[in-house]
Amino acid sequence: MKNRNSVSFPRHSRRAGCRKWLNGASALLLAGGIATGSARADDIQAARDVVARLLPAHAGQITLDLTPASGKAERYRVSGRKGHIHVTGSSDSAILFGLNWYLKYVVHAGISPNEVTPPTMAKLPAPDHPIEGSATFPFRYALNENTDGYTSPYWNWERWQHEIDIYAMNGLNTLLIERGTDAVLYRTFMRLGYRDEQIRAWLSMPAHINWQLMANMCCYGGPVPRDLIEKRAQSARQIIDRLHELGIQPVLPGFYGMVPDDFGKRFPDAHVVDQGEWNRFRRPGWLDPRDPMFARVAAIYYDEQKKLFGDAPVYDIQPFQEGGSPGDVPLAAAGQGIQKALDTAHPGAMWMLMAWYEEPDARMLAGVDRKRLFIVDLEQNTRVREDRNRDFQGAPFLYGGLWDFGGRTSLGGSSYDYGVRLPGLWQTQKNMIGTAVFPEGMDNNPYIFDLFTEAAWRRAGVDTTRWTQDYADRRYGQPGDVHARRAWDLLLRSAFSYRATGIQDYGEISAAPDSLFNAQPSLDTHSAAWNGMKVLPYDPRMLQSALDELLQASDAARATAAYRYDLVDVTRQVVANQARALLPRISDAFAAKDRAGLHALTTRWLELMDRQDALLSTNAFFRVGTWLSWTRSWSSDPAERSLMDYDARVILTNWGGRTASQVGHLRDYANKDWAGLTKDYYRTRWQLFFSSLETSLATGRPPREIDWYKVGEDWCRNGRVYSETPEGDSYAIAQEIHTFLATDGTAGTH
């Protein structure tokens, strides 16, 4: 009988790729925080496999080879003749990015998180001359701590493998893996005397566990099934092994003192500091890093983590994330204790911190070895920071691109900051060591992803107009399509036109406004997420013009999966923008007691939602059934499936319990324009609300109060199965919506 406390793994080889990664990691230059990216010259089969999966019809025409590194920067070179393309580079990342550059600018093909547009020609063309390039920064990092909650909590191996392939082709070489840390915590506290059921009740379910890793909350959605913990650890090992094979450095969560609330009772001599609340969730306790018990717990944690996942060059450690309190513990001493425990377990490892809210605290920075920090700077998205060497006291940092919160489907981003300002920052920000792809949703916004990842391989900003024209050419594989180019030029000058503003809104201003269709109904709402952008930062008519151009694209462009994705995305955003013009008119009609006008306006509102849901149904990326389908592969047990289904639904809607949802303002933080969610949840809420308004005008009484939390709970627990299979014709429905928007059936209402 298997030990009930063990986490088992299938027997498999880590292959030579693991050795390659370890060789590169051991070359980490601590003084500068730079990884050499060195690799074995005969060990790039994993990179070849990436090409075979993404470009099956053309992989046989592409030869990849490693060349010895010269200098610190990773380099690539693309040459060859027609049908025989040769790509060399000093690392897997450089080779694959070099190939991607060739595909972008010679072949006009696109590799993105939202569809791959393969070469249109049978034989690949030769470049006019050898193409050479190098990485500007040694670290091209990806994944927000919240991505594993809002994007990938239940992804299976096939989905993860595809994502890693996309990241590798876009030059990313450092990746946060949080999956499996629940197994580390489980094993750690079991060794400290906790019982199995106590730890499983303390841990949170997969869509919420990453907030527990930052000590924002605990104990949500479980008890977590033991076999789920084991399966997630196995999955994490598989993901990490693939990263090793590709020379991608994994970043793992480190230990900073998070312990169960009753830890101080179990160990009365330990100094545990109460951390209060986060958005009305009770935070776990924090163990004083000066306490001898801290070193003991940290040693166990890192020991268990190493047994499961090996070593990493960087550890993500976020004490006091969005609040918390050091109590009577001096911050400098706390930082020293955290860093000492990390260094004891992993000599020379770097400590990843976010520059977010008031973090990192200058007092903590003052107490640690700052050359070994790895700061992801998220404040650059809201206001320009001129001297991060001074702000971070010399600590190295990465420019974090944060264009999405909650995985929201809103279209937009700052083409200026990412395409013009970012590539040249190395000239003035001497402690900048990399870029960080840091949105909370990784399955949307391919335009900004492409622009941002490319910036790490440029030495100066781009002409965004020309760059966007090239993007339109490769996005649909049809260079010169005048309507596609015009559509993307209009998108550049509207949804992608805003930039860091100087408004101190803690980053939310860097994400595009979400849809009022997804908001908890009221007559004066300005965003669905409570701290989302409140106003549309562009003329919505320009987006409608972009849709008009997109609908006129060539038949060849329309035949691509990327076009179909973009058509749904742009049309969806055009429809969502209608709500911002319509809601004030609904409010005015209600205030004027205009029953006929109110009915006409609310009828149009609901019809827009119906049409939007039909449009979203045509693409798997925009179906809630796709999101929910991932949970079903993790268990055949009905009770466990029910737990996971609820976990996946509630993160989209109420987010947590009643108090956290309604008082803590977490409701709809992860709102999405997704088929099924739009029809059965968002539309249901607005229908209830509009009925209450009409009844109010008919009776003369105030509108009845509606328990919105209960409405959310009803949807989360209804058990309805949603298909992930697309239904309907994206183009036909988008064309119908375009025609519908041209006629206003409410003209004449007030």
UniProtKB/TrEMBL annotation:
Keywords: Hydrolase, Signal. Residues 140-458 form the Alpha-N-acetylglucosaminidase tim-barrel domain. This is Alpha-N-acetylglucosaminidase. The keyword Signal applies. Residues 45-117 form the Alpha-N-acetylglucosaminidase N-terminal domain. It comes from Novacetimonas pomaceti. Residues 1-41 form the signal peptide. InterPro entries: Hex-like_dom2, NAGLU, NAGLU_C, NAGLU_N, NAGLU_tim-barrel. Coiled coil: none annotated. Residues 467-738 form the Alpha-N-acetylglucosaminidase C-terminal domain. Gene3D superfamilies: Chitobiase/beta-hexosaminidase domain 2-like (3.30.379.10), Glycosidases (3.20.20.80), N-acetyl-b-d-glucoasminidase (1.20.120.670).
